[in-house]
Amino acid sequence: AQSVAQPEDQVNVAEGNPLTVKCTYSVSGNPYLFWYVQYPNRGLQFLLKYITGDNLVKGSYGFEAEFNKSQTSFHLKKPSALVSDSALYFCAVRDWGGYNKLIFGAGTRLAVHP
Amino acid sequence: SQTIHQWPATLVQPVGSPLSLECTVEGTSNPNLYWYRQAAGRGLQLLFYSVGIGQISSEVPQNLSASRPQDRQFILSSKKLLLSDSGFYLCAWRGTGGGYTFGSGTRLTVV
């Protein structure tokens, strides 16, 4: 069965420092991986996706993610965090066996401190 | 361009009352549509998905139902709400490029 794990409930980073939000996955078949961000009482905003090609994926708002097949990971990164990056981040994988629905991790709350 | 609309944004309903949340998609045809629920501000649980008019699949047994009366319309309903139905409901559709777009969500509070 497909699954996604986000091992950290919360990540705290100082503004200007690099940030990493971790994600590992388990999927049968080729992994289609996604990162979404959610601000309070808002819908999910798409950040980036990996389907095929370069293992380093660049997305919105300066975020990027590195696909690592051997470690089954897809960590989200940003070189310099902003206070406005503080939000809830979700990693997701496409479920090939279930009408292509997305399976989400539990989410990681990112707090960027001034 | 493709857009997804979801309403209402917030809803407060008494226990035992009916529910109807609507989601519509513009700029695409025959989309795969999904209803998710987010409880306690964290994980997202898939409730229903639909690959076409009248075709609904349920992921988990619950007090809710879904319908797809038109190609780009997806409705989440309940005949009698329970306290446990409170949460943040999100509609989504899968685009041809492999991405998924989410609506802005409905915050449902059952009192």
Characterize the structure shown.
Chain A is mainly β. Helices cover 0% and strands 51% of the residues of chain A. Chain A is built from no helices and twelve strands. Chain A has strands spanning 3-5, 10-14, 19-21, 24-26, 33-38, 44-50, 56-58, 64-68, 73-78, 87-94, 102-104, 108-113. In chain A, the strands form three sheets. In chain A, strands 2, 5, 6, 10, 11 and 12 form a six-stranded mixed beta sheet that branches. Chain A has a four-stranded antiparallel beta sheet with strand order 3-9-8-7, with no helix packed on it. The termini of chain A are far apart. The model of chain A has no long low-confidence stretch (mean pLDDT 93). Chain B is mostly beta strands and 111 residues long. Chain B is 0% helix and 59% strand. In chain B, the strands form two sheets. In chain B, strands 2, 4, 5, 6, 9, 10 and 11 form a seven-stranded mixed beta sheet that branches. Chain B has a four-stranded antiparallel beta sheet with strand order 1-3-8-7, with no helix packed on it.
Outline the fold blueprint.
The complex is a heterodimer of chains A (114) and B (111).
Chain A: E1 3-5, E2 10-14, E3 19-21, E4 24-26, E5 33-38, E6 44-50, E7 56-58, E8 64-68, E9 73-78, E10 87-94, E11 102-104, E12 108-113
Parallel strand pairs in A: 2-12
Antiparallel strand pairs in A: 1-4, 3-9, 5-6, 5-10, 7-8, 8-9, 10-11, 10-12
Chain B: E1 3-7, E2 10-13, E3 19-26, E4 32-38, E5 44-52, E6 55-58, E7 65-70, E8 73-78, E9 87-94, E10 100-102, E11 106-110
Parallel strand pairs in B: 2-11
Antiparallel strand pairs in B: 1-3, 3-8, 4-5, 4-9, 5-6, 7-8, 9-10, 9-11
